[in-house]
């Protein structure tokens, strides 16, 4: 019995449908970059947020012309300081756990937390499991960046790896444009334990 | 009335005619799946970076070039006088675990085993937590004389591993100390605490 014209039509339609689905799957499946990208965890100012091996709360953000760190270091800059006060701890493991990624992203530009204040910022201290370390992060930014349009949609990114791919990345939106520029800020030395 | 429709296949007849093929499928399919799973699982276990060699509380275990056991474990509460003397962070305790080491030999370099000790908490609903011996938190006051293994002592000795842990650690969970000797990896000793 030879196939009828209808059978040819049905077979052809089925083939086109399968090829179409395959094309959609192929073009919508995650590529290598997306597969290896950080797992972004949306966080908000003042609220705790957790990732695989990081638990953090950003308490406040301020902008100042100069800062005086808890170890007495006085920071002057040609730009401005963005001072972030936060609590952070490791969740499961303290081996190699430090705040490897502490980045303030403004538009397409990212600024790493300064290590100029030495041990007076949490950027330089190893974390421990389940015990919070509370203290400042200090970012040195050009003055015009803080007043730019992108400053209103800046974000603070935190992770326990310097390379946060395939790991949690806490992302806290920060409106830098809404912050008053203060003359000087005195910040506390990082402190362990419940505040 | 009466006779079966000509050409219809009766189930019993079909099973009988295909019994050899069905038997082969019944044997070969589970065997194939079994071999594939076994192969993958064996590879998975062989590629583990480490494997615990467990010891119950109070038990002595042979591991590396020594015998190991937990002699004592003391918990210093953060809000106690001793805790304040060590300047423990608020909401934390200090767990001091005395590990007894009885060297039974030396490594290729002629020295006894160096080691690292970690505290592991399991049995919680959340993920397992671990802490390093003498982690990043600096403590005040006089600490123990020896906090890790010695590569020179050939007679039995003890060392005190110190772990600063959250106050809830070990309250509704089990704690054990993991001893790692690099030359003995991927095995590591896992000594349970009381």
Pick out its properties:
heterodimer; A: about 200 residues; alpha+beta; Immunoglobulin-like; 2 domains; 5-stranded mixed beta sheet; about 35% strand; B: about 190 residues; elongated
Outline:
Chain A is of the alpha+beta class and 195 residues long. Chain A is built from three helices and twelve strands; from the N terminus they run H-H-E-E-E-E-E-E-E-E-H-E-E-E-E. Helices cover 16% and strands 37% of the residues of chain A.
Explain this structure.
The complex is a heterodimer of chains A (195) and B (194). Chain A is an alpha+beta fold. Chain A is 16% helix and 37% strand. Chain A is built from three helices and twelve strands, in the order ααββββββββαββββ. In chain A, strands 2, 3, 4, 5, 8, 11 and 12 form a seven-stranded mixed β-sheet that branches. A five-stranded mixed β-sheet of chain A has the order 1-10-9-6-7, with no helix packed on it. The mean pLDDT of chain A is 92. By secondary structure, chain B is an alpha+beta fold. Chain B folds into two domains: 36 residues; 141 residues, Sandwich (Immunoglobulin-like), CATH 2.60.40. Chain B is elongated and about 90 Å long. Classes of the chains: A alpha+beta (195), B alpha+beta (194). The interface between A and B is medium-sized, with 17 and 20 residues.
């Amino acid at each position: 019995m030879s196939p009828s014209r209808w059978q040819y039509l049905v077979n052809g339609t089925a083939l086109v449908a399968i090829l179409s689905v395959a094309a959609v799957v192929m073009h919508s499946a995650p590529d290598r970059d997306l597969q290896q990208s950080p797992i972004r965890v949306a966080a908000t100012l003042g609220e705790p947020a957790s990732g695989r091996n990081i638990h953090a709360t950003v308490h406040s953000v301020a902008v100042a012309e100069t800062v005086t760190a808890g170890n007495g270091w006085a920071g002057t800059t040609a730009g401005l300081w963005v001072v972030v006060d936060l609590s952070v701890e490791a969740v499961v493991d303290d081996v190699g756990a430090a705040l490897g990624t502490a980045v303030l992203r403004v538009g397409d530009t990212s600024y790493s937390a300064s290590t100029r204040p030495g041990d007076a910022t949490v950027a330089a201290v190893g974390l421990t499991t389940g015990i919070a370390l509370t203290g400042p992060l200090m970012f040195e930014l050009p003055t015009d960046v803080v007043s730019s349009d992108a400053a209103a949609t800046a974000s603070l990114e935190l992770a326990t790896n310097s390379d946060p791919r395939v790991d949690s990345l806490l992302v806290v939106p920060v409106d830098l444009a809404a912050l008053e520029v203060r003359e000087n800020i005195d910040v506390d030395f990082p402190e362990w334990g419940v505040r | 009335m009466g006779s079966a429709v000509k050409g219809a296949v009766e189930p019993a007849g079909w099973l009988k005619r295909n019994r050899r093929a069905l038997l082969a499928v019944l044997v070969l399919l589970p065997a194939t799946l079994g071999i594939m799973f076994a192969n993958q699982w064996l590879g998975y276990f062989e590629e583990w970076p480490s494997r615990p060699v467990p010891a119950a509380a109070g038990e002595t275990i042979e591991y590396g070039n020594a015998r190991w056991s937990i002699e004592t474990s003391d918990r210093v509460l953060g809000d106690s006088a001793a805790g304040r003397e060590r300047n423990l962070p608020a909401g934390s305790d200090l767990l001091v675990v005395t590990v007894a080491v009885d060297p039974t030999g030396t490594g290729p370099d002629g020295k006894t085993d160096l080691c690292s000790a970690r505290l592991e908490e399991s049995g919680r609903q959340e993920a397992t937590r671990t802490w390093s011996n003498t982690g990043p938190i600096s403590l005040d006051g006089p600490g123990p004389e020896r906090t890790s293994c010695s590569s020179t002592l050939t007679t039995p000795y003890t060392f005190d591993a110190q772990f600063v842990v959250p106050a809830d650690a070990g309250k509704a969970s089990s704690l054990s100390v993991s001893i790692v000797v690099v030359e003995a990896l991927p095995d590591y000793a896992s000594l349970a605490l009381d």
